[in-house]
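Section 3.1: Structural characterization of target chains.
Under the original work plan, the team committed to producing a structural model for every single-chain target entering the pipeline before any wet-lab resources were allocated. The record below documents one such target. The sequence was received from the expression subgroup and is listed exactly as submitted; it comprises 387 residues.
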Amino acid sequence: MAKKLRVGILFGGRSGEHEVSLRSAASILKAIDKKKYEVVPIGITKQGQWLTAGNAQALLVGELPVQEPVPAVAIIPPSPAIKPAKKAKGLALAAAAEPASPALDVVFPVLHGTFGEDGTIQGLFELADIAYVGSGVLGSSAGMDKDAMKRMFAASQLPMTPHVTLLRSEWTADPKKATRLIEKKLQYPVFVKPANLGSSVGISKVKSRADLAAAMDLAASFDRKIVIEEGVGGPGVKPRELEVAVLGNDAPDASVVGEIVPDREFYDYASKYDATSTSEPVIPANITAKQAKQIREMAIAAFRACDCSGLARVDFLMEPTHDAQGKKIRNPKIVLNEINTMPGFTSISMYPKLWEASGIGYSQLIDRLIQFALERHAEKRETSFSK
């Protein structure tokens, strides 16, 4: 009987998307093929403590008891200079007061946002020489930082809406000067965003100067860099919000195009996760075959521009069919919005649903991602890091 791959499902974390991560991990743990994989849940609390075994499961369902600080998990990279007592490859996870655990073959980090999707945890896996699902350090950090991401899109000549990036220090030092700069380069409405955050946290739609300062202060509370984007379609209209799922490494594939119809001004955090939200996904999106082809090609180009691997969801904005005066828009403009290197991964999240509509079921998608992680790790070992 073939040995099962030992897969660590890593979830939680210190970001504002902690709860979203728990939902994604719960779905994966339920759907992953237990006949093929030995699954190890690994949780990280909001305070940054690493948990295994029963404590990780308790965190997953929100029942972690109040107790003394839980010992952090020790992450031990294999060393060629020290022969282990038992043959083991990859990342060894152990906790104080717990017996040493066998090594993991691959980690599936279902961590959304800061400290999980921004290259930090990926750097840890690289140091430990462990296979992991998703983009590497560069792809993850570029996909998280909207300013860096846009620079990479621009270098690849991909279409975007006009934008301005300001530092928090520039805004606080001279708000009037910053406002003049924004208004010189952009027209209202604008979207004000923290550069490094996900799930639309800290994002505001600003229709006039009167609301700009509050939006800038909110974004500045979440990050030192603030990205201000000109709205697509002009005043009085809502652009269409389109999404594509990308899967693969060096030769990625794109899913069918989906559309989100938000119940608010835009697809914000409440629209995504509030139980009362009436936002609707439309899969496939009601667009022409030519538009779908263009968007899917742009999604793969964006994936490559940021040096992504494994998975990503690429989001687009498209002018509506009619402007604010009701005049039909011919050849509506389509622009890249952003790339998300670890999108929501519940069974009803857009990324899995887009692949389901493209012929890849949820459990099969998990299999594919694990295989792509192992493939990329094996390919990396062909690289020499010293003379």
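The radius of gyration is 22 Å.
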